[in-house]
Amino acid sequence: MTPLLSVRDLRVGFGQTPAANEVVKGVSFDLASGETLAIVGESGSGKSVTALSVNRLVDFGGGHITHGSILLQRSDGSVLDVAKSDEKILRTIRGRDVGMIFQEPMTSLNPVHTVGAQIEEAFRLNRGLHGAEAERAALEVLDRVRIPDAKSRLGYYPHQLSGGMRQRVMIAMALASSPRLLIADEPTTALDVTVQAQIMALLAELKAETGMSMIFITHDIGLVAGIADHIMVMQHGLAVEQNTTDAVLDNPQHDYTRHLLNAVPHFTSGKAVRADNERTETSEPIVKVDDLVVRFPVKKGLFKPRGAIHAVDGVSFDLMPGETLAIVGESGSGKSTTARAILGLNEKHRGAIATKPGRSRRPIQMVFQDPFASLNPRLNVEALLAEPAIANGQKLDDALRTRMRFLLDRVGLPADVLTRYPHQFSGGQRQRLCIARVLMLNPDVVVLDEAVSALDVSVQARVLDLLVDLQHEFSLAYLFISHDMAVVERIAHRIAVMYAGQIVEIGEARSVLSDPQHSYTKRLISAVPAVERRRQHFALDATQVPSLVRPAGYEPPPANWREAGQDHRVRIEEAK
Amino acid sequence: MSKLFRAFLRHPSGRIGLAIISLYLLAAILGTLGLTPHNPLKLFAIDRLKPPSATYWFGTDLLGRDTFSRLMVGIKQSMIIAFSSVALATLFGTVIGLLAAWWGTLWDGILMRIMDVLLAFPAILLALLIIAIVGPGTSTSVAAIAVVYTPIFARVVRGPALSLKQRDFVDAARTFGSSQPYILSRHLLLNLVAPLAVQVTLALAWALLTEAGLSFLGLGTQPPTPSLGLMLAESKNLMTQAPWLMIFPALTIMLGILGFNLTGDALRDILDPRMERREA
Asked: To the nearest 10°, the Cα dihedral for A262, A263, A269, A274?
């Protein structure tokens, strides 16, 4: 049987002299119809460029195929070399034979058209359907991607849908032409874990239903385990290993594959939690948060009553010196708002945040999620590191520079970077810089708001190790905010699970991860992709986070808690 | 700084713009030092209305004064007014825009509505109004032009400042306890240098034109001090007999505006963050 797609010695270059500036340096692979190939690699490995060459979208990004062939079997049985086709023929391939979904569903949908209109357009262009016919087809395809209440959603604009819903709409548009090959470029990277699990389950079911082939691009080798038939691992533009999924995962041949598999945080349901800090009865909390409430007013119009978004509703916890408390939850669960309220970046509506006087004037410091946004691009490293010290009355003198060099060395950056600017560093280095900066003030508590989420997996692992080392060395307490259970398992002593602005379960890490009590915690844990659990079947679960907009004067019913063991409390769920 | 200069020389319109402005600055400096070919105020009674020649490069006017020398002093006059008025407008506009963005809500509304009102008047009309109240003169021209261009700077600053204010590095600065002046100057203003620099060069071109317009109407620089607009006004009745009296001041004004505009365009290209990344 001839393969659907056969790529031979593909080379792609960029810029004025593509041959000298190659990003993909000779990649070959075959894809049989109905099969899924996962291309795995870190940023800059050429995985996206390889996949974008298949429908020649790479041309629009300034890329140029310098060598090799891409043989695609078309629906009428003829074989076409995509690498040598002209734009006119390519246009008939894109959408019809090769569909594509992108990473960021908000930017790939047009914000001024309803999703219905956009799906109908896909049908009009690819199948020539018009009017009521197109609408019926759009409705049908929305049903197929399991969007609840599809009929009314047709009239929605992209901004009215959640990230997961938008990605489903993108998939629906790609399906409109029943492509024989679907290219998915990191389709779940921008989504929450439980939504990611939903999308992955949907893709697996659609593949089984339609029999289409898929190229799945991702940096997360753990994610593809459940869906791919073959895995191709790429590094520096070369395919370093390619084989069946089981062979790659169970018996990796290349060092880089082994490295990737090791770097992926393995989630082990609480078996790998840290055991280096036991709570004692006598210790006194360094931060104690009691009944914290943060609300953002919503204006509905001149005469309509005002409501409020109850972003954080009655959150209480305490943090001991030298301890890591992880707050896990999905976007919109209020975990970042909680952190920002503790630092005084958001005004609180009610509640108390008590801090024990610490080693410096500002005992709580924060590291932000995006290392590219949290450093002023116009200041050099010296000015960046000096800022916290200057803000607290110190002078920029030799003593301060000595401390800078000490901390830079401690976070693993050379001391001669003081005159460099942020854009000269990689993401991981910038995050190290941010960590060094918060340590300038010798804080007692560091709030890490998704501090490793934006980093590549192998960089992520090294930064996590650094954080653990620093915690011991400077006896820091961490408030670690994350959506990633596997990361949390590595660093947390205690875990608080947040859902819809409230803590639903809090307790010792091992106990929460190995024996989750609340239904949301269970869902969150079952959604973690893991190499070990790849043979488990993912059930499709379309539960949505409830709206947090409440009418004025609304107060949530008081929380009832039950003990689920020593230092493990669960909120009692209301029967629905 | 030398990197910026080299980037200018590489940019085709930047090269021309920079050459024109350098020429004008040279003329202005020589004019200030009195190093003109002839005394611009001296009347050569026998050489009235002479066409351009080896002695009088750009000819003489009705009173027998050397046009070239008067142009040099006129350029000086225009440059002083343009630079000082734009400097004032930049200062006030930046402060107003920054504070409006930083304080937000009510203050933003009040300050920006005042700017909108100023912006609603045509530039010349607003300047006329101010001069009518205070009386004509060089310093009044400076003040009037500054008031006219303040709202533009306020707007240019406020937009990016609003988005910079939301950035993580500003939040980070707040968690360190950095003072407001520190955040405003290091985190906001420093990131606004590029758009401001472009706006300054473009405003200089407009200020040059507005100044010429005001003196043309007799409301700016007062005779006998030479100024580009005044010279143009005086040439109006002699257009057919002595066209050089009109052509040279008009060309001088045009070329000056062109120079600033070309520089502004080049600056915009060079300071574009996307270009910067490509170079880095």
From this structure: 100
